[in-house]
């Protein structure tokens, strides 16, 4: 119950919708601040849709955002109109990064949805993650609403060879949208939109948040704490189970992120252990028993190729010169070659 109330409140503040093309808005500055209804934006725009499964559980306000791309402009489909309404790409890259170590990870505390920044080690991990993906194209970034995931994404992108600047979209209010507009086409072309969504937040740990993990095990017993942390459908007191976390994270991925991949956009997601485990469960078709044993290291990116409606797992890139990563697909190889030519 507490988890539901928490997410209803956060959903009101951290909402967004599909992105109208940013370049289009720069040419029509008088229309920069407006709400998109059900219209499909022509040209380079994107269709507006909402997650029915999320709407049933959360009061989420849908509002305007924007998009820019390092690849040829394509239409982004509504799932219900995916047939002829967009130019389907042969493949797209999907990068998943669990945030670097946080200050509460360092102190061995249950963090959950408490908004805690990265530790020094976490900052170094985020920068190293950026080096690993520095030659993989990124058109749009999704993060959770929590600062440690956003810091990881921003720090990682400082290492990217294309030099584009990630810009967090602010859709909390009409004023926030208005005041954060960019009025230079050239600057827009050198930017990457970053969408923060509470649905990608870490699992809400309820009454365990802020408690020391070892002291909690001493108090409740190791078996009980292990059950709270690693079972699929048993939540901690007044918190979320992994199953509950998966319901919101996977629904968001299917409704908001997967259409970007269908449209040929290369996506990076910077999020958390449990929200990413949930998404990987969906991508790799894992069972509830298989996912509970899945461990994700902080600051280690995972690469998937989305091709012909399938997600192909390619593991973690080792670095920008690793030939194997870029041999997976012709598109990644061409992108890397273009960067090599630019910086020779």
Automatic annotation (TrEMBL):
Catalytic positions? 99, 202
What protein does this entry describe?
A: phosphoglycerate mutase (2,3-diphosphoglycerate-dependent)
Q: Record's superkingdom?
A: Eukaryota
Which residues does the record give as substrate binding sites?
A: 98-105, 111-112, 148, 202-205, 213, 229-230, 273-274
In alphabetical order, the GO MF annotations are: phosphoglycerate mutase activity
* The keyword Isomerase is assigned to this record: yes
In this chain, the site described as Transition state stabilizer is at: 272
Q: Which organism is it from?
A: Sphenostylis stenocarpa
Extract the PROSITE patterns matched here.
PG_MUTASE
Q: Which UniProt keywords apply?
A: Glycolysis, Isomerase
Q: Which family does it belong to?
A: Belongs to the phosphoglycerate mutase family. BPG-dependent PGAM subfamily.
Q: What is its EC number?
A: 5.4.2.11
Biological processes, Gene Ontology terms:
glycolytic process
What single Pfam family name could you report for this chain, choosing any that match? His_Phos_1
Q: The organism's lineage?
A: Eukaryota, Viridiplantae, Streptophyta, Embryophyta, Tracheophyta
